Predict the 3D structure of the following.
Amino acid sequence: MNKSQKTIVGIAFLGLASGSCVAQDDEDGPAGFTYATYYVCDVATQGDMDTVVETTEKAVFDKRVKDGKLLAWGYLSHFTGGRWRRAQYHVSPTMADALIAQAAIFSEIYGNGRNQQAGQTRAEACEAHDDYVWAVGQGSGPDTDRGDVSLSVYYVCDITREERADEIVAAGPGPKLDELQKEGKIKSWGWSLHRIGGRFRRLQTITGDDYASVVAARNDVLQHMSENHSELGAEFTDICGSHTDYLWDIVHEAP
């Protein structure tokens, strides 16, 4: 695994992210891209989707990671948040690779009439979805183990000023999250950048061993910003003035 690949694996998605610096090998662009699909499911039958992923899809994703065709993948289950009930992601070194992988994986699993019943069950359990491609941004180092749960904050931002929001994260929340990680209060954190998808422009993730620890970490960051960087905090809120919070259980991931 090369340097770029190791960096992406350490910060992928939901851990969707060394130090508070932008995670890239040079200044030419992000080190990698996460293709994330967020599913709207019937609460009564969403467990059927979990079964399909476990029995029909997981082995294919795992093999692609093992063979180096993917850098990482994962599957998440909703605990608290908005309308999304499940999320599935995979990570590639370029956007083109991410888009190609998305088509190739599902063609391998369901193409030419394969696994028809599983595909039908999947469609009935989760009838709608939203696709995003996130560019790898700031966050934990490449060898960081992630926790069992993730707090994910999806921001709606002013597209003309969102890069300034990235600078504010590097100056304020980033160092505080690094400190919390070193203290063992969280497992990892990440900051991802919108490339394809809906209205959310930025994604902050914090992973830990339980829900209480990741929520407490976020509160610590907000308090830190209020006490030490109030002007930066106000500027950030002006740029990214709306957000939606989710708590996810990390059900599957590799590596």
